[in-house]
Design goal:
Blueprint: E1 4-5, E2 11-23, E3 26-37, E4 41-45, H1 52-60, E5 67-72, H2 82-85, E6 88-90, H3 103-111, H4 120-126, H5 142-154, E7 160-164, H6 172-187, E8 191-196, H7 199-205, E9 208-213, E10 216-221, H8 223-230, E11 234-239, E12 245-250, H9 253-263, E13 272-274, H10 278-285
Parallel strand pairs: 4-8, 4-9, 6-7, 7-8
Antiparallel strand pairs: 1-2, 2-3, 2-5, 9-10, 11-12, 11-13
Helix pairs in contact: 3-4
The chain binds adenosine-5'-diphosphate (ADP).
Residues 23, 26, 28, 46, 48-54 line the site of adenosine-5'-diphosphate.
Length: 292
């Protein structure tokens, strides 16, 4: 079996229903449903402790679950075979690759583990480490090290790549380069699941995303659709003649501005009308909203 077809005709690379996981008293994953389509970049977004890593570890077959059905490339990760594992790309953090080996030696070494690996030279180029190919791993910067980790995750030419917080600790320039790499892999047809607590990262990369909070999916969809669905209303700001700054949250900003126009004869000082951003939506849904 290759995958699961949904009622809408999408082939699902990952199909999760009613997933639950507890650690003692802590419910880390509290009944999650997820469908990741073949060929898409799916973002699992949420604050620390939301249950992202636990979910990804279960999909990798590296953690047991308490309840729910999970299908990854048509198989249950809990009983995944070696052949199945070779189709799923996992990027380890703190990979225990031998520090004395060079980048090229390491990538070539890992290629031997897979039945149909990519060309090591091509993969080194893909992650932008050509200039470092003959450098020892221990001499790499943090960002270069992460790119090597990704190289090792894709050397087996996986159909699905699972990335858990891949850019945590990156500086902005390294993050942008990493995003380019993800887009390249996606263009080549790799299905990618990426967890992140950076909203801008999910917005930049994900075709669809699920927002996770407290072990539950609180919203799921295309970034634009989420903004449209949950980000209703607008904030109208202006300054009163006595200098007081005012803000009104309203579903009908045009009416509010029309009212202000009648009251102020001429320009309305400090007038600003703003629609909620996806960040506002995210903060609201994950209960981190700040009162402005
Ligand atoms: P995220 O990746 O979104 O930060 P995690 O899946 O790591 O979330 O954690 C979800 C919850 O489960 C948190 O409350 C965390 O403290 C708890 N948790 C995670 N791993 C373990 C573990 N091995 N033992 C006990 N509790 C854990």
């Amino acid at each position: 079996m290759i995958g699961v077809m949904t009622a809408h005709g999408y082939e699902l690379a990952v199909d999760v229903r009613g997933l639950r996981k507890r650690y003692g008293d802590v419910t880390a994953v509290d009944g999650i449903d997820l469908g990741i389509r073949r060929g898409e970049v799916f973002g699992l977004l949420g604050p620390n402790g939301a249950g992202k890593s636990t979910t990804v570890e279960i999909l990798q077959g590296n953690r047991s679950r308490d309840a729910g059905e999970v299908s990854v490339l048509g198989a249950d990760p809990a009983t995944g075979t070696r052949a199945w594992r070779s189709r799923v790309g996992i990027v380890w953090q703190d990979e225990s690759a031998p520090a004395e080996l060079t980048v090229r030696e390491t990538v070539r070494h890992f290629a031997h583990y897979y039945p149909r690996p990519r060309d090591p030279e091509q993969v080194i180029g893909l992650v932008g480490l050509e200039a470092k190919a003959d450098s020892r791993i221990k001499s790499l910067s943090g960002g270069q090290r992460r790119r090597l980790d990704v190289a090792l995750g894709v050397i087996g030419d996986p159909e699905l790549l699972l990335l858990d917080e891949p850019t945590t600790g990156f500086d902005p320039a390294a993050r942008r380069r990493f995003w380019d790499l993800i887009r390249l892999l996606a263009d080549e047809g790799t299905t990618i699941l990426l967890t992140t607590h950076y909203l801008e990262e999910a917005e930049a990369l994900a075709d669809r995303l699920a927002i996770l909070a407290g072990g539950r999916v609180v919203a799921e969809g295309e970034p634009q659709a989420l903004r449209d669905r949950f980000g209703t209303g607008a904030a109208v700001e202006w300054t009163e003649p006595d200098g007081t700054a005012r803000t009104e949250h309203t579903e009908t900003p045009t009416r509010t501005v029309a009212g202000l126009m009648r009251r102020f004869d001429g320009e309305i000082p400090g007038l600003r009308v703003s629609r909620p951003t996806l960040e506002d939506v995210y903060l609201r849904l994950t209960g981190q909203e700040t009162v402005r």
